[in-house]
Amino acid sequence: MFRKKKTKEINIITDEKLIEVLLQRSISTILPSKEELKKKFLSGERLRIYIGADATGPDLHLGHSTNFFFLEKMRQLGHEIIVLFGDFTAMIGDPTDKSVARVRLTKEEVEENIATWKDQINCVLDLHNKDNPVRIERNSKWLSKLNFEDVVDLASNFTVQQMVERDMFENRIKEGKPVYVHEFMYPLMVGYDSVVLDVDIELGGNDQTFNMLAGRTLQKVKGGKDKFVVATTLLENPLTGKKLMSKSEGGYVSLQDVPNEMYGKIMALPDETIIPLFVDATWCSVKEIAVFAKEVKTHPKETKMKLARTIVSIYHNEEEAAQAEKNWEAAFSKGGVPEVVDEIVAKPKTKLADVFMSEKVVNSKSELRRLVESGAVTHTETGEKVLDMNKIAKIGIYKIGKKRFVKIVVKK
Predict the structure, then answer these.
(1) Which of the residues 28, 52, 55, 411 has the least number of beta carbons within 10 Å of its own beta carbon?
(2) Taking the domains of the chain in order of start, what are their residue ranges?
(3) Are 270 and 68 in contact (CB under 8 A)?
(4) What is the CATH number of domain 342-410?
(5) Which of 3.40.50.300, 3.40.50.620, 3.40.1160.10, 3.30.70.580 is the CATH number of 16-232?
(6) Do the Cβ atoms of 83 and 50 come closer than 8 Å?
(7) Are the CB atoms for 40 and 77 separated by under 8 Å?
(8) Cβ pair 96, 52 in contact under 8 A
(9) How far is Cα of residue 148 from the mean position of the Cα atoms in its chain?
(10) How large a percentage of the chain has pLDDT more than 90?
(11) pLDDT digits (tens, 9 = 90+) for 362-390
(12) How far is CA 29 from CA 54, 229, 275, 285, 360, in A?
């Protein structure tokens, strides 16, 4: 177990108003109940809370930030925070909300994905605070040491019926798609994380409730204690119910996006998502958000600009956010090109597709192909639309889609 002796006294804040707001904002479900958890907070006991995230990609997005805002507020109240990087479970693959089995990753791919996570998280969660530091763990530390007897022991706490009742498995079975045995192992592995870390609370999106409850079952059996499960709301369009931070659905805002791109992506989101984003992805108070909720009815563009500026300031700074806003206005409100454009250096006679892919201007060749075929890639200085992605890259500024500009400089 990881329970350590206290090396210094940490003051636990038990302000009832702060705790009430904490347990209302961005919360979907609290198990066994909100009332019981509130009593725990008011008791003055120092609680241990963790969140796990699988390193299945190099960047986190605004949807992830909801949980880190919650954790930072808890850290400021004096509680112990653990961020668990799922380096081992990323190689299994979370079946949640998947219509097909997730592709398993190699150790090298996981390490590459996890490389910048601390920097991304630290924009919201103060990882380096000296008074109440955040712990970073990796579950390969214990999961890689389990033998077959250990896995059988964990599996004995669950039934096949429990597993196949999960929506994504039921749907696949109905559609004749395969469900692999290793996918049943996933909730066992993440559940065992709770046992090893000996936590009081687990935090996660409401799509992770099954996995978090698996941890609650195992912790009760193995550790003899109940764990609170706090499921947070997912960023969704309130009119369509579709996830906002989905690459397939659009609207994906990475925490690593440069200021211009981040600002532009937020401005491209539907107006009805403005208030949910203020609630789930900013530090703005309840009173401030109430004002924005009134403003958005008559001045949606101006309110969305406040949102974009607020979010860019969190992951960059106020000066860069102000410049990104100025660039956006120049590019979109006035129909021009931003004053500051991301610059890419390319070698002579390099194909445009290779330049865009090497610098991650687009996520995939298929995405670039769709942009080119729809006439969404333009050389701004000539006005020429790029119709062949294998053309040699020209010097100058390219507009990609509605919100991205890059300047290509050719050097040997």
Answers:
(1) 411
(2) 16-232, 259-333, 342-410
(3) no
(4) 3.10.290.10
(5) 3.40.50.620
(6) yes
(7) no
(8) no
(9) 33
(10) 50
(11) 777 778 888 888 888 888 766 678 888 88
(12) 22, 8, 20, 21, 37
In angstroms, the CA 265 to CA 217 distance is: 41
Highest mean pLDDT among 232-236, 327-331, 342-346: 232-236
CATH for the stretch 259-333: 1.10.240.10
Question: pTM of the full predicted structure?
Answer: 0.78
Which residue matches tokens 């507020």? 73
Query: How far apart, in whole angstroms, are the C-alpha atoms of residue 210 and residue 158?
Result: 12
Rounded-to-integer distance, Cα 353 and Cα 365, Å: 7
pLDDT of residue 2: 36
Residues pairing with 81 in the sheet: 49
**CA atoms within a 13 Å half-sphere pointing along the CA-CB vector of 120:** 23
